[in-house]
């Protein structure tokens, strides 16, 4: 499947100058002088194969071997290195070598270009080429007639060659006949396992992998029997879509092996993500979910227990691992049909669990991600997730990736579905080793999974296991695959199942008897039947069985459900001042900040003296007060440390010492929670998914993702549509993720103007045509019933916040300390408090709006001396719609016509959402007029003059009392 090279496989031709650059990093000065970059020198004859067709690793290895024992290399290299170290001038270190004979160089010619993965027997069906190429590369030795490619002939096969220290095929032997060398290399790299690793530029890692696959006899062991879960489901629900594992049954022992070996290595918690194929089998036989709970999901009258299909659900289970005899927690994260969308979510949840338990190296918590071959190659989120794997604030210290390589995507042939040779080639971007294995060989599968788990434990880096398999039933159990893949499915119909094949092997070798095998099958079948009977009891169904991240104790207080209340979020003036002082200072000695930042901090200090805050300082107060209460705050996104608009500056950089930073927010209080602020890679889909997963792990944290500009969420839309908006409805999965989306029409063109609020409002679940019953706890009850919102609550919901751009420095966009003291609350709606409110009967127009247009309206109203005839009301919480407060305001101004004003175009923004709800609020007794830009396809004009004309036009419309009369 992957271009797995053998012990000495090298793909990239290199020049002597490249070899020189590699050696010069760690070699004696004399040798460095000999190998001069960008110069060509005559090298020893023995060196020519390496300098023209091999990676520099081999020459480097040989040099190390020569330093330890000059006799361990061929005489030509010994002379070359001696002369080089003695300071020989360029081009003179070489001397003619003795005849080839049994030299290391001759063996090296053989080793240098063997790539066994091209000819490994990976397809269980025997009809597909794993790398999509039927041609065997000319440099691969598949018969004696190819020996000539390396300057060898058949007479050399019985010559004995001394083995270099860079291979382990000899075991305890130091020399072997060439015929045996080739045989052992074939056994290691050309059977049911193909190993792709020589692109890794770390010698220790390459040697580690060689040792695992080249030592004779490393894969000799027997297996425990596998289960027959899929066969039971087939008998009971033959007409149900189950997306079963038939054809890839080895996935179960593969996952068990990874988990068992990881548990032995100290892992206590495994977070998993996978698409739907085989999910029920994994739940039953790997996580060990109660079978009756799975069978319940097949009963149509019980489907109401979840808002999604059974093969999308997640779960959480803690049990004893039988191999390590240790407790282990297994969590399978719920995932929609967007196959790879769960990848960053799993990584974020894993990072969070590592963070909360102090697991800085990933020794206790790890992730396993399962993939399909077509999705792994085709979906960009796979690359985005790999790209996070080594970033300091996002690494989970290694993930084991398992690809169920069906050799087809739905009905699409892999030759039409990818341009790369293997579906797993994307993993090479992070130097992850890739182990391709024939899934019909369970022993080979288990061996590579053991190696994969050990690799992760040793190097804390990603690794890929590619299970080359097939789908016995097509895309799902209702599919007819013969329509599109007749050859493949003719072969599949003839194919014995892996369990049958392996059982026959074990019986033939005497590992088990046929009676033992049949008794084991009957025993498990009985377990399934008994669970099926119990599943008919409706009492056993409870949604708690399908939570992938329970929050024990969060929803109750002293054993009782928490009250539906919204506590004050205000804090004392002393705390406000203290947090403000930290925000306006550098709490580290001998730390030099930028001169412009000095002015910013001084300005913050002046605001604190005046008891006022702007947006950036208000954010500081909010974060700082939560940290003091022990609530972790994590802010992630592109350029969040400074802030896109240079307003935040949560990370200070020493102007004189490279990489020396200070995060003042972590100096608020001795016992505070840690504050994590981290610039992300230039990814939205991956990073938002990661932060969503992080927010899943604990309700007692504030996790925020900020888009550089609000419209950047476009490329993360899948996470919003599939996880954030419907998460509670689909999986009863609460989440407190916060999206900060800079928004505002500043005359800068269609890009970076609009965060598309209309999209979020369209997905809100409150009914525009029903005026709700107003109760004492209406505000909090309304928030509980909706799908996304705001504030400190006894529950968690996502918050979508449209943040300002120009208002960050607007002189009127300020708040007083008085609005943040104890007893204050978030204001869902801010009514007019000027002359109009003092004489409501005289008000002719009541304008509702939100965002920065308020400041433009008030400026224009004042310029026209209309402050006593026009009232302007700000709607701070758009959804859930504040029916009660809007009703109070409209009743306060009985003689006023009603206008909704927005700067966004009429078919965008908020109008389509607020109009029907305002009409419902007033019993449709009067119209709700629109003032704003007309409909348009793009969010904004790219012409500054046109922008100003549009603004002037709709402001005049909003404040002109004669407007709309001809429509009345």
From TrEMBL:
<dbReference type="InterPro" id="IPR029061">
    <property type="entry name" value="THDP-binding"/>
</dbReference>
<dbReference type="Pfam" id="PF02779">
    <property type="entry name" value="Transket_pyr"/>
</dbReference>
<dbReference type="GO" id="GO:0045252">
    <property type="term" value="C:oxoglutarate dehydrogenase complex"/>
</dbReference>
<dbReference type="InterPro" id="IPR031717">
    <property type="entry name" value="ODO-1/KGD_C"/>
</dbReference>
<dbReference type="GO" id="GO:0006099">
    <property type="term" value="P:tricarboxylic acid cycle"/>
</dbReference>
<dbReference type="GO" id="GO:0005739">
    <property type="term" value="C:mitochondrion"/>
</dbReference>
<dbReference type="GO" id="GO:0005634">
    <property type="term" value="C:nucleus"/>
</dbReference>
<dbReference type="Pfam" id="PF00676">
    <property type="entry name" value="E1_dh"/>
</dbReference>
<dbReference type="GO" id="GO:0046872">
    <property type="term" value="F:metal ion binding"/>
</dbReference>
<dbReference type="GO" id="GO:0004591">
    <property type="term" value="F:oxoglutarate dehydrogenase (succinyl-transferring) activity"/>
</dbReference>
<dbReference type="GO" id="GO:0006096">
    <property type="term" value="P:glycolytic process"/>
</dbReference>
<dbReference type="InterPro" id="IPR005475">
    <property type="entry name" value="Transketolase-like_Pyr-bd"/>
</dbReference>
<dbReference type="Pfam" id="PF16870">
    <property type="entry name" value="OxoGdeHyase_C"/>
</dbReference>
<dbReference type="InterPro" id="IPR032106">
    <property type="entry name" value="2-oxogl_dehyd_N"/>
</dbReference>
<keyword id="KW-0560">Oxidoreductase</keyword>
<feature type="domain" description="Transketolase-like pyrimidine-binding">
    <location>
        <begin position="613"/>
        <end position="810"/>
    </location>
</feature>
<dbReference type="InterPro" id="IPR011603">
    <property type="entry name" value="2oxoglutarate_DH_E1"/>
</dbReference>
<keyword id="KW-0460">Magnesium</keyword>
<dbReference type="GO" id="GO:0030976">
    <property type="term" value="F:thiamine pyrophosphate binding"/>
</dbReference>
<keyword id="KW-1017">Isopeptide bond</keyword>
<keyword id="KW-0809">Transit peptide</keyword>
<keyword id="KW-0324">Glycolysis</keyword>
<comment type="similarity">
    <text>Belongs to the alpha-ketoglutarate dehydrogenase family.</text>
</comment>
<keyword id="KW-0479">Metal-binding</keyword>
<keyword id="KW-0832">Ubl conjugation</keyword>
<dbReference type="InterPro" id="IPR001017">
    <property type="entry name" value="DH_E1"/>
</dbReference>
<keyword id="KW-0496">Mitochondrion</keyword>
<dbReference type="InterPro" id="IPR042179">
    <property type="entry name" value="KGD_C_sf"/>
</dbReference>
<keyword id="KW-0786">Thiamine pyrophosphate</keyword>
<dbReference type="Pfam" id="PF16078">
    <property type="entry name" value="2-oxogl_dehyd_N"/>
</dbReference>
<protein>
    <recommendedName>
        <fullName>2-oxoglutarate dehydrogenase complex component E1</fullName>
        <ecNumber>1.2.4.2</ecNumber>
    </recommendedName>
</protein>
<keyword id="KW-0539">Nucleus</keyword>
<keyword id="KW-0106">Calcium</keyword>
